[in-house]
Design brief:
single chain, 114 residues, mainly alpha, 4 helices, 40% helix, elongated
């Protein structure tokens, strides 16, 4: 294990993600399970294709590296979220927060390692 989860499990009543809230969309890296269905989590995960699981892992790794991997990253993320809410006309777009490809300003930063 590389120090961070490969799948995020959210156990609470389902909530709708509103793109107007912007910021990090954890639903892109989450397996949503209602609390009443906890006993079937393993069966649910077995229904996911290898490609879907790889996509979830890739998204979690992107979120981890970009927003949560260090105190500096967490602080900068928090300050950017505050800035986006105070000055919504200059806010980062949804894709910047959630799409690993659109977040890269320098193509040489792209890597193929996991």
């Amino acid at each position: 294990m590389s120090g961070h989860p490969s799948v995020y499990l959210r156990v609470s009543p389902m909530q709708r993600f509103d793109a107007a809230d912007a910021g990090v969309n954890m639903y892109r890296a989450a397996v949503l399970v209602d609390e009443d269905d906890l006993s079937s989590v393993v069966d649910l995960l077995r229904t996911y294709s290898a490609a879907h699981i790889a996509s979830l892992r890739h998204q979690v790794q992107f979120f981890w590296r970009t927003y949560f991997s260090s105190l500096r990253a967490i602080t900068l993320t928090t300050l950017q979220i505050i800035n986006d809410r105070v000055f919504p006309y200059t806010a980062l777009k949804y894709e910047h927060w959630n799409d690993p490809i659109s977040n890269v300003s320098d193509p040489s930063q792209l890597t193929t390692d996991n």
